[in-house]
Amino acid sequence: MQILTPHVYWAQRHGEIFLRVELSDAKNLDISLNQNNTLHFRALGHGAKGDNEYKFSLEFLEPVRPEIDHKSTQRQVDIKIRKQRVRWWDRLTLQEKKPLFLAPDFDRWLDESDAETELQAQEEQKISKINVESRVPYLGLKKGYLFMYNLVQFLGFSWIFVNMTVRLFILGQDSFYDTFHTTADMMYFCQILAVFEVVNPLLGLVKTGLYPAMIQVAGRNVVLFVIFGCLEEMQSRSIVFFVFYAWSSIEIFRYPFYMLAYIDTEWQLLTWLRYNLWIPLYPLAVLAEAVAVIQSLPIFDDTRLFSLPLPGFRGRSLSFSYTLQIYLVLMFLGLFINLRHLYKQRQRRFRSRKRKTH
């Protein structure tokens, strides 16, 4: 067999050199570093010229440490070498002319400023880890509290979802009209407890955005306590079923996702559902809430409930329905803000997962 040179791709950080050798099913690997600071590579494998013996040598620009980390896969051989001094190199090899078989590894490539940013982030992460270790008791209590909060909410919304689903299969459409009377107490409990989703970011316990949490909690509580809770005429309408079912369908995936995250556990199917189901469900939930508000407008006009007396106009008052009409506009503005927030969360999540896979 003739001896050939494989394609080699390289990238660097301030402290490491990364080499990727395009050689699949490599066997009889012989990788060494001599006293002249030269790396020697020899192996049998399938490269650009088929099954052959491939070898190359690289004399590095500056001294490197003798330890060599390498990993052979079915597609390539990855080599990691540490520099003696943590600094940026102008080039890889001592000779100025680049070898023909050598090229940049653009999958790993960073320019010097980006590499400095990455190095600084790593240092900050180390400092943060030290700070975290010093706050272990606090973090234990914090994670325990957040785990229990999400567990209780998950159980509450699961009870609502299962109750409504079972009644729907047994009673059919008749179950639409008594949803409030069968599930309202549990929904009251869950939505009162949801106020902690505003308190938690205020106290710095979670990194979730404060305003999206406020919009969601306030919006749902207006519908639950003001529209459904104060108007008996609304409690027997089918729209209650659709609002409650949409809310519980979202939360039975959201709460267990966060619950598992606090014990450093991830279930990929649950992650996918958490970051994809909101795309149809969240607008449908807001649409159902809007229908409920619209249906309540004539009832507030007739009952004059929460109407505001107008001074100077005896017997005249401003109907609460006008406030709800303004609220309708704000509801769809809140929908846009929350959809934008959820989309950014989704992008960050799948971008970070993509980095991990690479």
TrEMBL record:
It catalyses: a very-long-chain (3R)-3-hydroxyacyl-CoA = a very-long-chain (2E)-enoyl-CoA + H2O; (3R)-hydroxyhexadecanoyl-CoA = (2E)-hexadecenoyl-CoA + H2O. It is found in: Endoplasmic reticulum membrane. Keywords: Coiled coil, Endoplasmic reticulum, Fatty acid biosynthesis, Fatty acid metabolism, Lipid biosynthesis, Lipid metabolism, Lyase, Membrane, Transmembrane, Transmembrane helix. CDD domains: p23_hB-ind1_like (cd06465). The keyword Methyltransferase does not apply. The keyword Iron does not apply. GO terms for molecular function: 3-hydroxyacyl-CoA dehydratase activity; very-long-chain (3R)-3-hydroxyacyl-CoA dehydratase activity. Pathway: Lipid metabolism; fatty acid biosynthesis. One of its GO terms (biological process) is very long-chain fatty acid biosynthetic process. It is a multi-pass membrane protein. One of its GO terms (cellular component) is endoplasmic reticulum membrane. Belongs to the very long-chain fatty acids dehydratase HACD family. PANTHER family: VERY-LONG-CHAIN (3R)-3-HYDROXYACYL-COA DEHYDRATASE, VERY-LONG-CHAIN (3R)-3-HYDROXYACYL-COA DEHYDRATASE 3. This is Very-long-chain (3R)-3-hydroxyacyl-CoA dehydratase. The lineage of its organism: Eukaryota, Metazoa, Chordata, Craniata, Vertebrata.
